[in-house]
């Protein structure tokens, strides 16, 4: 497994970055069909007042590349206009290219579906089309100083395996090859930028899933973590349980177990307070606890909340929890979670970010490449529950792979002075 296809670069910072995944108030991500720059500016104004420094932006792939050889110039221009509007408000921009999958809806171009059904990850023509699309978006923004870089796509690993109803099956080797090619395309379009990929938690928790922790931890400029407690964590441990309030921190530490660079950045790229698992009246507390616990981990690049604004009730068929995840309402009023984020931003402004190393590590017995027994790391799994028990005891546990548990150089580089196995946890 190669360590990276892009340089491990990161914008200079002395405090953690805070941002939001931008969900437009008018039309949700369908706003690209009726792009209104004034409405976008108003949305961004409401985010800037929270003190945020970046947004993550989602083009809809079928609208930007409706034919394999047609990447619509006007759509690309609108993306650049959005990025420029963000710059005017002091917001950096990360762009997710292949959308892909958003809030339970799939957005795939017609040239990959039904009569043109081809594997998204292995078909030569599809992969070449994806490469050109990512390269084009990256190149259009390469000269903008507020352009952070590309994320290949939003949780596109969900297309590769169950429980997706119609997956494009691939092997871990094919997944790695596809990721390397997509990252190289981003780098070709915008050399030296902060390019990465991002998966939902099947990569960490689902046995035999083709996208692996090693890929997440060794390919691209950072490791992306998407933390959602509706995955069984809140159901099992409750809204204020240690596992719930430290789920993001757990995923960060789990990710770091696979790092070959002990100071590789981890980006908490998606995290939110989903109702009813986190009731509305508890959202602010959950937000503060989640972020504070995440920032008790070293080498966190930043926190990007899902999402910026609520989804309008005028839009049908979303899962119920998707309507209320915003930091602001569809009228751009700040919600309790938004106020909590604003307080955190103010607290961290100008402060050095230097959490103490986590000196005790829980040993994970897993293959360092294929990540066997991933289900033990999932909510309810033996490893997950052991880590939670240690955290509840105040141990601030890290995670180390069994192959490194007696590697003094590896442990010293991470500041680990003691290891414990799940069987030894009370």
What report would you give on this structure?
The chain has 426 residues and is an alpha/beta fold. It folds into two domains: 17-348, Glycosidases (TIM Barrel), CATH 3.20.20; 360-424, no CATH class. The chain is built from 14 helices and 13 strands. The chain has an eight-stranded parallel β-sheet with strand order 7-6-3-2-1-10-9-8. It has a three-stranded parallel β-sheet with strand order 12-11-13. It has a two-stranded antiparallel sheet with strand order 4-5. It starts with 16 loop residues before the first strand and ends in a 6-residue tail after the last strand. Keywords: Hydrolase.
How would a crystallographer describe the biggest sheet? Answer: 8 strands, parallel
Helix-strand string = EHEHHEEEHEHEHHEHHHEHEHEHEHE
The domain count comes to 2
Mean pLDDT: 95
Could you tell me the radius of gyration in angstroms? 20 Å
Query: What class would the helix/strand composition place it in?
Result: alpha/beta
Architecture of the largest domain, according to CATH? Alpha-Beta Barrel
* Helix fraction bin: 25-40%
Got a strand count?
13
CATH class category of the largest domain:
Alpha Beta
Q: What is the fourth-level CATH superfamily of the largest domain?
A: Glycosidases
From the N-terminal CA to the C-terminal CA, the straight-line distance is 36 Å
Which sequence of strands runs across the widest sheet? Answer: 7-6-3-2-1-10-9-8
Strand content: 5-15%
The general outline is globular
From the 3D structure, determine the CATH topology of the largest domain.
TIM Barrel
How many helical elements?
14
Low-confidence stretches: 1-13
């Amino acid at each position: 497994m190669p360590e990276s296809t892009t340089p491990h670069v990161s914008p200079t910072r002395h405090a953690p970055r805070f941002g939001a995944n931008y969900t437009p108030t008018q039309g949700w991500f369908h706003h690209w069909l009726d792009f209104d720059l004034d409405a976008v500016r108003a949305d961004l104004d409401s985010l800037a007042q929270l003190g945020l420094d970046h947004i993550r932006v989602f083009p809809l792939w079928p609208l930007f590349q409706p034919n394999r050889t047609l990447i619509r110039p006007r759509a690309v221009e609108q993306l650049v206009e959005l990025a420029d509007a963000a710059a005017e408000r002091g917001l950096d921009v990360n762009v997710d290219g292949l959308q892909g999958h958003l809030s339970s809806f799939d957005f795939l171009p017609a040239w990959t579906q039904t009569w043109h059904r081809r594997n998204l990850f292995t078909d030569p023509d599809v992969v070449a089309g994806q490469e050109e699309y990512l390269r084009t978006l990256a190149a259009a923004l390469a000269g903008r100083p507020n352009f952070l870089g590309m994320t290949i796509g939003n949780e596109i690993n969900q297309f590769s395996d169950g429980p997706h109803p119609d997956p494009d099956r691939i092997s871990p080797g094919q997944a790695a090859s596809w990721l390397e090619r997509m990252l190289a395309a981003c780098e070709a379009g915008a050399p030296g930028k902060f390019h990465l990929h991002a998966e939902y938690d099947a990569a960490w928790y689902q046995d035999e899933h083709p996208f692996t922790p090693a890929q997440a931890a060794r390919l691209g400029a950072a490791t992306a973590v998407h933390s959602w407690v509706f995955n069984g964590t809140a159901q099992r441990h409750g809204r204020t349980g240690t596992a719930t309030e430290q789920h993001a921190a757990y995923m960060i530490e789990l990710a770091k177990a696979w790092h070959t660079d002990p100071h590789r950045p981890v980006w908490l790229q998606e995290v939110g307070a989903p109702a009813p698992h986190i009731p509305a009246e508890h959202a602010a507390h959950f937000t503060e606890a989640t972020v504070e616990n995440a920032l008790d981990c070293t080498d966190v690049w930043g926190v990007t909340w899902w999402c910026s604004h609520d989804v309008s009730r005028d839009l049908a068929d979303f899962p119920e929890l998707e309507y209320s995840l915003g930091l602001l309402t569809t009228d751009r009023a700040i919600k309790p979670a938004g106020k909590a984020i604003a307080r955190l931003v103010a607290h961290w402004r100008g402060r050095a970010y230097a959490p103490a190393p986590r000196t005790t590590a829980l040993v994970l017995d897993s293959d360092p490449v294929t990540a066997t027994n991933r289900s033990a790391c999932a909510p309810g799994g033996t490893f997950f529950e052991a880590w939670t028990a240690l955290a509840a005891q105040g141990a601030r546990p890290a995670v180390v792979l069994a192959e490194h548990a007696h590697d003094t150089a590896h442990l010293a580089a991470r500041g680990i002075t003691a290891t414990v196995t799940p069987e030894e946890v009370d």
